[in-house]
Amino acid sequence: MELLLDMTVPVLIAAVALYGMLRRVDVYDALVHGAADGLGVLLRIVPSLIALLTAVYMFRASGALELAAGALAPVLEALGIPPETVGLLLVRPVSGSAALGVGADLITTYGPDSLVGRTAAVMLGSTETTFYTIAVYFGAAGIVKTRYAVPAALCADLTGFLAASWAVRLLFGT
């Protein structure tokens, strides 16, 4: 079984190359052309990524995250979301790596089997890094005006946060 798993990728690559050769496609040239296109996309999206990551680190370093956490705690309690997860709610739509850091900190502080730890883990799995995704995909496609994409994606994130919190309370209790 382990050999089968180890051979999956090499066999898949060989099969694609063989299929291309049978169809009389210059496989190497197609690979080089695809890599060149990929580098072009990378050059278009890197400025957006740098700006986004810089803004996230400035937000965390300035202390604005802790200030927002204190202001939102009463609303979160009313919605059934543990107030300790407010940092995760604010960071997750912006940065996946920062959200993983916040989630790991919550799990370390409260424990993996606590309500907060479980809720943080489920929130990480049921939401998306909205602004990162929009910056990458819209930047790659050259879309400047996002119109309703950002509000709709943030509503989906909020739904994911609520569903994660409620599912953990339903399945594991308080």
Automatic annotation (TrEMBL):
Residues 42-143 form the Nucleoside transporter/FeoB GTPase Gate domain. InterPro entries: Gate_dom, SpmB. One of its GO terms (cellular component) is plasma membrane. It comes from the Bacteria. Coiled coil: none annotated. Keywords: Membrane, Transmembrane, Transmembrane helix. This is Spore maturation protein. It comes from Candidatus Intestinimonas pullistercoris.
